[in-house]
Amino acid sequence: MARKLLLDKAHIENIRYYDVYRANGGYAAAEKVFKGMSPEQVVEEVKKSGLRGRGGAGFPTGLKWSFLAKPEGVPRYLVCNADESEPGTFKDRYLMEFLPHLLIEGLLISSFALGAHRTYIYIRGEYAWIPDILEEAIEEAKRNNWLGKNIQGTGYDLEIYVQRGAGAYICGEETALIESLEGKRGNPRIKPPFPAVKGLWESPTVVNNVETLAAVVPIINIGGEEYAKIGIGKSTGTKLISACGNINKPGVYEIGMDISVEEFIYSDEYCGGIANGKRLKACIPGGSSVPILPANLLLKTAKGEPRMMTYEGLNDGGFVTGSMLGSGGFIVLDEDQCVVRNTLTLARFYHHESCGQCSPCREGTGWMKRVLNNIENGKGKMSDIDLLWDIQRKIEGNTICPLGDAAAWPIAAAIRHFRDEFEWHVLNPEECLKRNYGLAHYADPLPVPAAVAAAV
Amino acid sequence: MADEKKLFKVKIDNISVEVEPGTTILNAARQIGGDIVPPAMCYYSKLQGSGGKCRTCLVKVTKGSEADPRPMPKLVASCRTTVMDGMEVANITSPEVQDARKGVVEFLLLNHPLDCPVCDQAGECDLQNLGYEHGADGTRYEFKRRTFDQIDIGDNIKLHMTRCILCYRCVFTADQLTNRREHGILGRGEHAEISTYIHKALDNDFIGNVIDVCPVGALTDRTFRFKNRVWFLKPVDAHRNCDKCCGKTVLWMRGDEIFRVTARKDKYGEVEEFICDTCRFDTKEASAWTIEGPRKIDRHSVISQGHYVGTVKPKEILTDVLDGRQPRLLMDIHSVSEVNRPEIDLSKIDGPAHSDDFRK
């Protein structure tokens, strides 16, 4: 049984409420900080832990905190990014719903470390019931002097506000989130300046994911070095994975970053294998925007080694034969699923969510969706596949924010690994409406030298 | 001098220039001038916060700075990226940049109606020029283009949203030039549109400038609409005493008749000084203006047609083309073709010629 740091007490009844949370060792980390740690020591501890951003990009949190500009007389802000809108990702919802006080404790410690006196939780609009849970928890924390003025007699003040978004995926991008929080249209800003210098209301701001901020609590509790012992290499600690798709046990799992993908999918502790005795065809391992991988490349890397559930492990082979850990939205597709249809669904999503600010993403996402729609419905041409490849290539990297990349990557990966299936759709326009391409050769073991050669 | 500002050395397409710190790559390129200046559709030097959206000005930074020589991983928008000391930038020397720009132009033209023959902006349209220089011959887009209804915003301005490329210039103009902003962007993604909140008329002394800043024909002058093609008009510099603006304008005339009044634009299509609506829409009598002289248009657009400097016209007369040589018969069609039979003389055939006559 792997060690759990975030969800170890999630099963306790009424852990949502302050009394139960406190009785089960809650706010011990905050107590430890206020009793004898300076803000610098907290940042140092987070740096030692090797904690990396859990929102998708995997940027080292301690480093991000140390970039925060600290000019005199200007307030600093911490913003918690709870705009979890990536299809397939629902780990933050679970955390906030069941352990709101864990997030608040994490926010308290992080705000103290950063010197912020006002902290915002920007929550996705569709999570309509969670702001009530959070606000109730904030009220409880205030009553017990963990928030408000002069917290626990230390002279430190902190207010936490919950702000609901209006349901735009783009507002999960940190600068768009800040714009939206300021009450403007949620368009990403052009960087530089980065939020660490000019963020919310032109003041230095740190934006972190819910899980990242919650993970600060166990890091203080057990110490940064102890935390860094879990995991492999630069992927330290535990990670929440929200597994969904054709598996026996979908749900949110906390994994130590030292298990293999194969173990995660097939062991009874986690996903429990593919549902209904089907075979694994493909998997999107980190939320909808990361590249899709066929079964043979998912379980083994191009070099023939088992693929691990870590930032580096999933990225092994770059985008040619690898993928990304991303936000931990683990979507499993069995042999009955159609990759073209799946890609169309994603393309439709990104087309719908493009903010329309910069031209490649605004025009390109709609174009890709329409071309894919033709292929899926048996009206495609062979040249459409190359056209799609060309469109995604011209979007990727040429946009203001990463939404353009996020829209391009799934399509690029689907064509790279599943070109046969696209061609089958074009060549069998009537049959493709009635049945799916099936598993084909996507689970066949890859000959190692060939796969490595393909990568070169 | 001790307090002399340190200048940054920048190399753009291997041409060195020294600029002040804080200058953007685009403005540094404009200081060099010529064909290395990246095109810009949304950046407008007079409008704060503009730029970064259209992505036509993408360039490759091959060397970050003297202190940190690593190249930047992605192409950057030159209008919003400031220079560093020792930076090296590739624009027209980088095939990657040219390829990306071609892609951006294709994206910009994807939903554009290409109704240039009936568009008032034709001839002075930034998108038209961009398309000529960087665009492909045809489109690969096979779907229905996005369309919107035309809207009259106020008495003098027509919004033709179908042509818009969402550069946000007019939004910034309305925000920064007029004292009450009444229009912005509605909708998201492909469906985003410029809007005066619920079609409210833009009633302000300087709102007419949105017509000048618009790079395409999305915002046009209703007092000039369909009156004439711009290249048939003669632009002259003129001024009048105006209590609201500088009064320095360009009159577009034919004979003594003033067809329209615009602000003076520099060679990058940016206005030199904004003008008020009274000058633009209401002062169309020649007597109200003091004419300074003809306006020189030095952009590569249709307005300056026939005024290109150093244009080489093709020689059209055969003797000129042959340069003294005599035409030479290269082959006789009868010697290679078996279809024609020169030995059969049509005049000796009885009656009309028939295919049987040519059979051996």
Automatic annotation (TrEMBL), chain A:
The entry's keywords: 4Fe-4S, Flavoprotein, FMN, Iron, Iron-sulfur, Metal-binding, NAD, Oxidoreductase, Quinone, Translocase
Name of the protein: NADH-quinone oxidoreductase subunit F
GO molecular function list: 4 iron, 4 sulfur cluster binding; FMN binding; metal ion binding; NAD binding; NADH dehydrogenase (ubiquinone) activity; oxidoreductase activity; quinone binding
Named cofactor requirement(s): [4Fe-4S] cluster; FMN
EC number: 7.1.1.-
Catalytic activity: a quinone + NADH + 5 H(+)(in) = a quinol + NAD(+) + 4 H(+)(out)
Pfam family, one: Complex1_51K
Name of the encoding gene: nuoF
Residues covered by the NADH-ubiquinone oxidoreductase 51kDa subunit iron-sulphur binding domain: 340-385
Function comment: NDH-1 shuttles electrons from NADH, via FMN and iron-sulfur (Fe-S) centers, to quinones in the respiratory chain.
Keyword Iron listed: yes
Keyword set includes DNA-binding: no
Gene3D superfamilies: 3.10.20.600, 6.10.250.1450, NADH-ubiquinone oxidoreductase 51kDa subunit, NADH-ubiquinone oxidoreductase 51kDa subunit, iron-sulphur binding domain
Family the UniProt entry places it in: Belongs to the complex I 51 kDa subunit family.
Matching PANTHER family: NADH-QUINONE OXIDOREDUCTASE SUBUNIT F (PTHR43578:SF3)
UniProtKB/TrEMBL annotation, chain B:
Locations listed in the record: Membrane
Name of this chain's protein: 2Fe-2S iron-sulfur cluster binding domain-containing protein
One Pfam family of this chain: Fer2_4
CDD domains named in the record: fer2
UniProt entry keywords in alphabetical sequence: 2Fe-2S, 4Fe-4S, Iron, Iron-sulfur, Membrane, Metal-binding, NAD, Translocase
Record domain 4Fe-4S His(Cys)3-ligated-type: where: 96-135
Record's keyword annotation contains NAD: yes
Names of the cofactor(s): [2Fe-2S] cluster; [4Fe-4S] cluster
Keyword Ribonucleoprotein: no
Lineage summary: Bacteria, Pseudomonadati, Bacteroidota, Chitinophagia, Chitinophagales
Annotated ranges, domain 2Fe-2S ferredoxin-type: 8-95
Family matches, as SMART domains: NADH-G_4Fe-4S_3 (SM00929)
A single Gene Ontology CC term: membrane
Family (UniProt): Belongs to the complex I 75 kDa subunit family.
Predominant subcellular localization, coarse grouping: membrane
The organism of origin for this protein: Chitinophaga agrisoli
GO MF: 2 iron, 2 sulfur cluster binding; 4 iron, 4 sulfur cluster binding; metal ion binding; oxidoreductase activity
InterPro entries: 2Fe-2S_ferredoxin-like_sf, 2Fe-2S_ferredoxin-type, NADH_UbQ_OxRdtase_ferredoxin, NADH_UbQ_OxRdtase_Gsu_4Fe4S-bd, Prok_molybdopt-oxidoreductase
